[in-house]
């Protein structure tokens, strides 16, 4: 395992941070959107069957016990960026608005957007998207979207956002260095043109 800045990873790359295994989903202007994988954290969405993530048991657990455990395992709170979570319901109603937090299950829209990057889970997982009155959208083990009453306990693999310069651990076999080199080559070609870059490279090799 070697260390590198999270900004040097690409969507789909896996990395370790604070004793957790995670995957890069997207690069954004204010940080890198990631998701915890290979974890079986389980919690009710809400003990009172409330399907609004803002006031849910799950949000409180992620902000307290889950966050504290991660900090105890080596995470640094200053590495995280707050996320805005869109709580638009499955039918399009936006009564719940948005929620700003550091950890949250993915929404249905995020699940669809990053579906090809997200590995399936061995159990049902919560999303943050409400469905009907007391129901919440959940993800089945095959990756398909279903719904469930909010008082059930399902698994959660939270999304989180890291600042670009945050150091993470990567397995050198995931081609991070190769990807970074390709990014450099593309930039040089854009700035100087392909013939000049290749001519310089040939002189270096010689």
Describe the structure.
With 206 residues, this protein is α+β, with helices and mostly antiparallel strands. The chain is 25% helix and 33% strand. It is built from four helices and 14 strands. The strands form five sheets. Strands 2-3-4-13-6 form a five-stranded antiparallel beta sheet, with no helix packed on it. A three-stranded antiparallel beta sheet has the order 9-10-11, with no helix packed on it. The radius of gyration is 20 Å and the shape is elongated.
Write the layout of secondary structure elements.
Elements: E1 2-5, E2 14-17, E3 20-28, E4 31-37, E5 41-44, H1 57-72, E6 80-81, E7 83-86, E8 98-101, H2 108-113, E9 125-131, E10 135-139, E11 145-149, E12 153-156, E13 159-162, E14 167-170, H3 176-192, H4 194-205
Antiparallel strand pairs: 1-14, 2-3, 3-4, 4-13, 5-12, 6-13, 7-8, 9-10, 10-11
């Amino acid at each position: 395992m070697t260390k590198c800045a999270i900004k040097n990873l690409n969507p789909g790359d896996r990395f370790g941070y604070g004793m957790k295994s995670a995957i890069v989903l997207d690069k954004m202007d204010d940080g890198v959107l990631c998701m915890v994988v290979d974890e079986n954290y389980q919690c009710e969405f809400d003990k009172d069957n409330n399907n609004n993530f803002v006031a849910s048991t799950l949000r409180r657990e992620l902000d307290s016990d889950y966050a504290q455990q991660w900090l105890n395992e080596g995470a640094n709170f200053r590495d995280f960026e707050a996320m805005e979570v869109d709580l638009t319901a499955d039918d399009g109603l936006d009564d719940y608005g948005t929620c700003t937090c550091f950890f949250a299950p993915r929404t249905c829209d995020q699940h669809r957007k990053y579906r090809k990057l997200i590995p399936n889970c061995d159990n049902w997982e919560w999303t943050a998207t409400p469905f009907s009155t007391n129901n919440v959208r959940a993800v089945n083990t095959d990756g398909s979207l279903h719904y469930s009453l909010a008082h059930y306990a399902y698994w959660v693999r939270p999304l989180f956002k890291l600042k670009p310069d945050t150091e993470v651990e990567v397995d050198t076999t995931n081609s991070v260095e190769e990807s970074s080199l390709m990014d450099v080559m593309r930039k040089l070609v854009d700035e100087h043109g392909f013939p000049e870059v290749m001519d310089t490279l040939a002189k270096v090799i010689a």
